[in-house]
Write a structure and sequence with these properties.
alpha/beta, Rossmann fold, GMP Synthetase, Chain A, domain 3, 3 domains, nine-stranded mixed beta sheet, 20 strands, 33% helix, binds xanthosine-5'-monophosphate
């Protein structure tokens, strides 16, 4: 819920937090301009993995904004369009004249070729998937790399002739010119995707561009963000008071720890225990923050309040709305008791920033699963220390700050918690207890099998109005069924049901039936997303 609260009430300090980086940052940056490719985010992540900070901006971002960031290089991403299509995103020639090296990938390469007079045609056969690359002239991008490499392609248009002044570096099965460079103007192009794992030398090619061509300092790391953010937070907050809603998830936890490192006891965390968390989670959060990190923490036991408001409610969106509203109410009360701090910490991640406007200063509020009906009169200035980081980088920072492994690697958990996993029925204390016990068994066995980190989410669902017949001992039973849901995913937009080992499933099912008196049947959800969603409500 913590994220939801900030989403609903969010008052932006300014989306400029990300943009302000350029002026004060101590590390080199390479910008990726997004021409709509499926892998554009991945390019930025790979560049960061090479040790160079990278951000993704829309291809039409203003030239002045690019200049203002003083990047060491530009990467033009792939994209779905044909360069000849009527509405194809155009490459503005000024981008090639900024005096910094430019690397075009796939569509980006073709756009450079088109702009500078190369010959591109739609090939009779497209090249999708694995392909063999033959390097004919290593140039700077392939220096020291094998002349025969596997790479991954996804294109139909093909460069047949490099533009004047360029040297063709490589060809592939279907691409006469699969890479080219003009070292004088600092312009480079590759038809294949270096960012995907199916291109084994992809990272090497990227690294050659970043290091040898752009001359970047390759020492950026997620950990190095800590000092920078600490300074930034101090500058933003001064001696003001700051409040942070802790949810127990990794984002709000890491954000809170960073802010605490920066300004110590000017920060107060509020943890609202709505009674919809998993077993022991509330205690773990309180123990970590209060006892280990000595962060001022107000833990509010609001279970009764939430249950009372949820009484009789069965409709999922109503549940979400009530939980959102009640959360805000509790949070508001606590904020008032603390003298209404001016600043609110929010664990906004870089992927949220991209989704909501590409980091160009557009709205920065998470919209996904926003809880409706929240009052808009709660005014805070946001402190968002994670807005330049991807999720895995946030985990690295969390680890560096000493956050317990359990919190660092916690699977995503919805704000409304177990309430939306008691489906088609009312949330009651008894059902919560059943679901919590079932969930605990599932988590315990999945962890014991070493599978926890491989799964995006794993949880149980309790169909509230379903009972089925069973037989235990000599007695006929009429009990609840538990549904096991486990999925793999990269971003929750799509997901595949996880192929959990049969013996693990067997153990989980038999423990649930033996240990939870009201449960007499266990089932497995084998629906992927789409067409299913991850949650049942
Ligand atoms: P679905 O069920 O839409 O879920 O496939 C996608 C991801 O979003 C999470 N989820 C929520 N998170 N409040 C949240 O904070 C919600 O109301 C909510 N509903 C779904 C879900 O767990 C999955 O990770």
């Amino acid at each position: 819920m913590t994220d939801a609260i900030a989403q609903g009430t969010a008052v932006r300090d300014s989306g400029a937090a990300g943009n302000a980086i350029a002026a004060e940052r101590r590390h080199d940056e390479v910008l990726v301009l997004d021409f709509g490719g499926q892998y554009s985010q991945l390019i930025a992540r790979r560049v960061r993995e090479c040790g160079v900070f990278s951000e993704l901006l829309p291809h039409h971002v203003g030239i002045d904004e690019i200049r203002g960031r003083r990047p060491r290089g530009l990467i033009l991403s792939g994209g779905p369009a044909s360069v000849y299509a009527e509405n194809a995103p155009r490459l503005r020639p000024e981008l090639l004249e900024l005096g910094i090296p430019v690397l075009g990938i796939c569509y980006g390469m073709q756009a450079i070729a088109l702009e500078l007079g190369g010959r591109i045609e739609s090939a009779p056969v497209g090249e999708f998937g694995r392909s063999e690359l033959t390097v004919t002239e290593p140039g700077r991008l392939f220096a020291g790399l094998p002349t025969a490499q596997t790479c991954w392609m996804s294109h139909r248009d093909t460069v047949y002739e490099a533009p004047p002044g360029f040297t063709a570096l490589a060809s592939s099965t279907e691409s006469p010119v699969a890479a080219f460079e003009d070292g004088v103007r600092g312009l480079y192009g590759i038809q294949f995707h270096p960012e995907v794992v199916h291109t084994p030398y992809g990272t090497d090619v990227l690294r050659r561009f970043l290091d040898d061509v752009c001359g970047c300092d390759m020492r950026w790391s997620a950990e190095s963000v800590i000092d920078e953010q600490v300074e930034r937070i101090r500058a933003q907050v001064g001696d003001g008071r700051v409040i942070c809603g802790l949810s127990g998830g990794v984002d709000s936890s890491v954000a809170a720890l960073l802010v605490h490192r920066a300004i110590g006891d000017q920060l107060t965390c509020v943890f609202v225990d709505h009674g919809l968390m998993r077993k022991n989670e509330a205690d773990q959060v309180i123990a970590a923050f209060r006892d280990t990190f000595h962060v001022p923490l107000v833990a509010v036991d609001a279970q009764e309040r939430f249950l009372a408001r949820l009484a009789g409610v069965t409709e999922p969106e109503r549940k979400r709305k009530i939980i959102g509203e009640e959360f805000i109410r509790v949070f508001e009360e606590e904020a008032a008791k603390l003298g209404n701090p001016k600043f609110l910490v929010q664990g906004t991640l870089y992927s949220d920033v991209i989704e909501s406007g590409g980091g160009t200063g557009a709205a920065t509020i998470k919209s996904h699963h926003n809880v409706g009906g929240l009052p808009d009169d709660l005014k805070f200035e946001l402190v968002e220390p994670l807005r330049t980081l991807f999720k895995d980088e946030v985990r690295v920072v969390g680890q560096e700050l000493g956050l317990p492994e359990r919190l660092v690697w916690r699977q995503p958990f919805p704000g409304p918690g177990l309430a939306i996993r008691i489906v088609s029925g009312e949330v009651t204390a008894e059902r919560l207890a059943i679901l919590r016990d079932a969930d605990f068994i599932l988590q315990e066995e999945i962890r014991a099998a070493g599978l926890y980190r491989e799964l995006w989410q794993s949880f149980c669902v309790l169909p509230a109005d379903l009972r089925s017949v069973g037989v235990q001992g000599d007695e006929r039973t009429y009990g609840y069924a538990i549904v096991i849901r486990a999925v793999t995913s990269d971003d929750a937009m799509t997901a595949d049901w996880a192929r959990l080992p049969y013996d693990l499933l067997e153990r989980v099912a038999s423990r649930m039936i033996n240990e939870i008196q009201q449960v007499n049947r266990v089932t497995l959800d084998i629906t992927s997303k789409p067409p299913g969603t991850i949650e049942w409500e």
